[in-house]
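Problem 12. The chain below contains 173 residues. Write out its predicted structure in token notation.
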Amino acid sequence: MDIDYASEFEAYSDPPSPSRTLKHTLGLLNGTYKVRSSDIEDEWPLAMPSDGITLSLRVNGKEIWGTYEFGMFEGVLWMPERPMRPSFDRIPFKWRGRETDEGEMSFEDDQEGWIEFWGDGDIVGMISCFGDLYFRGQRIDSTVRTASDLRNEWDGYNDEEYERENRARWGGW
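Solution.
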């Protein structure tokens, strides 16, 4: 019996990376992005929202505020610096949010990720949420909450609120 090792290797190799092409202009950043992620879709298919996974971004001066809905995870992100041109540079962000099944809140300082802005609404990124979850998205519209609203949600992820929710969830433990 002959084994075709090349075919076997291809069957177990990672999928190809998305083509890395920068656009001529950065384009609008404010808006909602339709996101795809095999990490999320394969890991939690039953938790996927009916309208898919999304990320919304709002430029506020030099920073960006955003919100994400990634099926099992949702929350707010903050980037201290916004991109000024398309590039493969990874722009870091911090995030706070919750796991949607149990509702457990996460708000530690080491919760990070990054986004590359390839231009014309094309992004690639990673969020360190229960492992490194990679995603790719395309801006689909300009709908997004205000930066002050997102900042208020960010501030709501804290020790006091975590303890209050924990007591409510587990009956005062």
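Discussion. The first helix runs from residue 5 to 12. Students who got a different answer should revisit the alignment rule from Section 12.3.
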